[in-house]
């Protein structure tokens, strides 16, 4: 029977451990700071005892602790098993972990988690790269979760996730800023309906329209953003995203260099 060890039993780790158990997988766990007292999940007092017989070891300890925990786990993992790093970290960190795993004869899977774990638990969509990606996907198939193997090296999945984070976290900040302003202006419900209506349309078309329209109408939009920023100042609400938007239009118009930007040249029409 397949055994998966989960290192780090906080909110996300606990959800993964439960989901793996419910999928019929033997689950061991380790976390010196949290106790998960549940049937079917064997939490060990020592990390080595949790990982020494595991086919896959999942690390969910955060990027800062990822390397030290990985090295400790690798010292007890058997050759041919898979270290699956689920932590959101930089590509260089994932490359370092992959090299450390290879030195111990362990396969490495750079796993990018593509949605909030509380939403779907162990069935959260994943993207994987590294020399252990295929083996990880094969074993994880029992969970019936979407797993996209992109090939490539350790760090490739992490790189894609960070680029995605520019959009997702930036979008969150934009929604927070605009709804805060709308609340202060007494029209939050209306603005929420406007945002929802934009998202409900043809998404690929919307993306291209946002890109192309910004370059085609940069001067007019820069003036509108200036007015919007002044209004947010009058409302006494934050305008950090709005100010950054104005910086982009300044770049497009060449106001920051005296020459119109050519960064748009690679965009599709």
Word description of this protein:
The protein has 269 residues and is α/β, with parallel strands linked by helices. It folds into two domains: 152 residues, Rossmann fold (3-Layer(aba) Sandwich); 106 residues. The chain has an eight-stranded mixed beta sheet, with helices on both faces. Helix 3 packs parallel to helix 4, helix 7 packs antiparallel against helix 8 and helix 10 runs antiparallel to helix 11. It is elongated and about 65 Å long.
Tell me which CATH architecture of the largest domain applies here: 3-Layer(aba) Sandwich
Number of strands: 8
N→C terminal distance: 52 Å
Helix content: 40-55%
pLDDT < 50 stretches: none
What's the CATH class of the largest domain, please? Alpha Beta
The largest sheet has its strands arranged as 3-2-1-4-5-6-7-8
Helices and strands, in N-to-C order?
EHEEHEHEHEHEHEHHHHH
How does the major sheet shape up? 8 strands, mixed
The share of residues in extended strands comes to 5-15%
CATH topology-level name of the largest domain: Rossmann fold
From the spread of the alpha carbons, the general shape counts as: elongated
Architecture blueprint of SSEs:
Blueprint: E1 3-7, H1 11-22, E2 26-30, E3 41-43, H2 47-51, E4 56-59, H3 63-74, E5 82-85, H4 91-103, E6 107-113, H5 117-120, E7 126-129, H6 133-140, E8 147-149, H7 156-185, H8 188-199, H9 203-216, H10 218-235, H11 240-253
Parallel strand pairs: 1-2, 1-4, 2-3, 4-5, 5-6, 7-8
Antiparallel strand pairs: 6-7
Helix pairs in contact: 3-4, 7-8, 10-11
């Amino acid at each position: 029977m397949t055994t998966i060890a989960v290192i780090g039993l906080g909110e996300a780790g606990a959800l993964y451990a439960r989901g793996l158990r419910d999928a019929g997988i033997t689950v061991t766990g380790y976390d010196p700071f949290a106790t998960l007292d549940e049937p079917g999940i064997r939490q060990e007092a020592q990390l080595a005892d949790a990982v020494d017989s595991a086919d896959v070891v999942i690390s969910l300890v955060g990027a800062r602790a990822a390397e030290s925990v990985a090295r400790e786990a690798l010292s007890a993992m058997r050759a041919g098993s898979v270290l699956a790093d689920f932590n959101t970290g930089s590509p260089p960190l994932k490359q370092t972990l992959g090299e450390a795993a290879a030195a111990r004869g362990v396969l490495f899977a750079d796993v990018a988690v593509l949605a909030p774990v509380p939403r779907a638990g162990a069935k959260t969509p994943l993207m994987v790269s590294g020399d252990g990606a295929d083996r990880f996907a094969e074993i994880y198939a029992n969970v019936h979760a979407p797993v996209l193997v992109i090939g490539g090296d350790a760090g490739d999945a992490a790189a894609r996730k960070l680029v995605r984070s520019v959009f997702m976290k930036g979008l969150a900040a934009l929604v927070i800023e605009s709804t805060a302003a709308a609340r202060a202006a007494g029209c939050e419900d209306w603005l929420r309906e406007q945002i929802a209506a934009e998202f409900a349309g043809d998404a690929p078309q919307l993306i291209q329209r946002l890109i192309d329209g910004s370059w085609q109408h940069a001067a007019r939009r820069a003036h509108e953003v200036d007015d919007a920023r002044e209004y947010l100042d009058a409302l006494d609400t934050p305008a950090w995203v709005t100010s950054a938007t104005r910086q982009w239009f300044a770049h497009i118009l060449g106001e920051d260099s005296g020459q119109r930007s050519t960064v748009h040249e690679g965009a599709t029409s």
